[in-house]
Design goal:
The chain is about 40% helix and about 20% strand. By secondary structure, it is an alpha/beta fold. The strands form two sheets. An eight-stranded mixed beta sheet has the order 3-4-2-1-5-6-7-8, with helices on both faces. It has a six-stranded parallel beta sheet with strand order 11-10-9-12-13-14, sandwiched between helices.
Length: about 375
């Protein structure tokens, strides 16, 4: 049995796009009789070692500082014992996620020292931003530094989208290809549920870069004209309390952090999924989930979104409040068009963004 070690800053139950990518990738590899070892940070004091069938989770200790946004490995005795434990397994390939998480550097160093091929997945298509120009400047230079450190230890570079792959050029890296973020098209999903009015849903982190404030402003404007519309906001983040205090409409529901099964239930009552980030991203998992659940999607022309959404299967906007109002109004007034777009998106995702296809490519590329 071949063994693949996957290093990531976080893994489930920590919620995020990378975490879900790793979870789905691992499931598909295990279904194909590979052993998978996930090495991530122990952000919530879980068991440091856990083995279930062909899946092993190793969670390294981290410092409390920034633990929910940027894990800093605590290289104590426990850490050293956990890394040493990897030597008990014949690891054939290593996959690391993102250039700037220190877990990727741990994985790359481990592979280089033991002559194990290491492959890096790029999940973004621009610098990470904290919405502060001063802090961002130094954070970006730190990212540049970490990229220079890891480059020579990597066997192959891949992006979760074409835009993520192209972003690597900024660092003097030529991508070896794309391992698309994908979805399990054969999973059991609830049927769409009938309801009155039009339901809108956003799912993701509640931060300014995601365009959530523009969603809330647009919905508040539409509420003045339409009485039977509802907005659900799924997710958590630093802006949560501010948004809840500012937008107190009985038609706006802040759901907090949801697990996947809970989120799918909301997809089942959603007519229109809103995903209007103001900053380039890789390829959002929630976009694929909403499409598979036959939601009409309104998104911005950022990063990998345009590799999924086009004029034939969704609505693309600039992301400002005015353009969102126009697109949301169109989705309310023209239900027939919205249904047509959602059906086309459903078919496109099943054809182009299946984990079966992505894992076929990964196995071929890493020659395993």
């Amino acid at each position: 049995m071949k063994t693949i070690a996957i290093f990531s800053g976080y893994a489930l139950p920590h919620l995020g796009g990378i975490e879900r990518y790793i979870d789905n990738l691992s499931r598909e590899l295990i279904n194909r009789n590979y052993k998978v070892i996930i090495i991530s940070s122990n952000f919530n004091k879980s068991d440091s070692f856990e083995e279930k069938g062909n899946l092993i989770n190793i969670r390294i200790p981290i410092y409390n500082m920034f633990k929910n946004r940027y894990p800093l490995p605590r290289k104590n005795k426990e850490y050293r014992n956990l890394i040493k434990k990897l030597d008990e397994y014949k690891i054939d390939r290593i996959i690391v996620n993102t250039r700037f998480h220190l877990t990727s550097h741990i994985g790359a160093k481990y592979g280089k020292k033991r002559n194990i091929p290491v492959y890096l997945i790029e999940h973004g298509s621009n610098y990470v931003t904290l919405d502060n120009k001063f802090i961002d400047f130094f954070a970006n230079r730190y990212e540049d530094y970490l990229t220079r450190r890891i480059k020579k230890k990597i066997t192959g570079f891949y992006g979760v989208s074409q835009s993520a792959a192209k972003w690597l050029i900024k660092f003097g890296i030529k991508s070896d290809g794309v391992w698309y973020n994908s979805i399990d098209i054969n999973q059991s999903l609830p049927d769409k549920k009938k309801h009155n009015g039009v339901n809108f849903l956003y799912a993701g982190r509640l931060i300014k870069q995601k365009g959530v404030l523009n969603i809330l402003n647009a919905f508040s404007e539409l509420e003045k004209e339409y009485k039977n519309i509802t907005l659900y906001i799924a997710g958590d983040g630093p802006e949560m309390n501010d948004y809840k205090n500012e937008f107190k409409s009985k038609n706006i529901h802040f759901l907090g952090r949801l697990n996947y099964n809970q989120l799918v239930e909301y997809y089942s009552i959603t007519d229109v999924f809103l995903y209007p980030p103001l900053w380039p991203e890789g390829l959002p998992t929630s976009l694929l989930e909403a499409g598979l659940m036959k939601c009409c999607v309104i998104g911005t022309m950022q990063g990998g979104i345009v590799e999924v959404i086009n004029k034939n299967n969704g609505i693309l906007v600039n992301g400002d409040t005015k353009s969102l109002v126009k697109a949301m109004k169109e989705s309310i007034d023209d239900n027939k068009k919205c249904n047509k777009l959602s059906l086309q998106l459903y078919n496109d995702i099943k054809k182009n963004f299946s984990w079966n296809v992505t894992v076929d490519k990964i196995i071929n590329d890493i020659k395993l």
